[in-house]
Each structure stands twice: as C-alpha cells, then as structure tokens.
Design goal:
Layout: H1 5-29, H2 32-41, E1 43-45, H3 55-63, E2 67-69, H4 76-86, H5 88-94
Parallel strand pairs: 1-2
Length: about 100
C-alpha cells in the first residue's frame, strides 16, 4: 500500500478545520485590544502539530494572522509553565480569578 501526500492531507483536513474553527471562535470572544496585539504579533504554534510541514502557513492563511512555530514546539507549553512558576509576578498576570 502506498500513502500519498493527498491521502495525508485528506486524513488531517477535518481535524485541522476543527482547530481553525475553534481558533476563530476564540478570537471572536477576545477583547479588541488583545486581538490587535495578536494581529500585529501573531500566535506561536506549539505541540507536535507544529512539526507538520507547512502548517504555519496553512493556519496563517486561514486566520489571516501571523503564525510562528515555537522553538522546540513539543516542549514549549511545559517550558512556559515552568517559567511562570519561577516568576510569581508573571504568574499573577495570567491567573484567572
């Protein structure tokens, strides 16, 4: 059996569209001043999904905002959490009360 690029695209299409739709819904609920910052600075893609070639441009094109792949995307989330734990002043800024 031979798996082609199109086979992979078809297999991922539904999941990627769900991710993009969820991101669009989230963007609609965020305060305008935060959205302005996101549109200017972009978002950082973390996790194993970031290893898919071209995923950043695919998402960027659909959302119409810059998408940057994190350095070591598979570790980015846990590294960010560890930084917050080590910095109480930054942790206070992101806590939801």
């Amino acid at each position: 059996m031979r798996v082609t690029t199109n086979d992979i695209k078809e297999a991922l299409a539904n999941n990627l569209n769900q991710i993009i739709d969820t991101a669009k819904e989230l963007i609609e609920t965020v305060q305008p001043e935060i959205i302005d910052g996101i549109v200017k600075s972009g978002v950082i893609l973390a996790g194993d999904l970031a290893h898919i070639p071209g995923i950043d441009s695919f998402i960027s094109t659909d959302l119409k905002i810059p998408v940057i792949i994190a350095e070591n995307p598979q570790d980015a989330t846990i590294n960010g959490i560890l930084r917050l734990i080590k910095s109480p002043e930054h942790l206070k800024r992101v806590l939801i009360k």
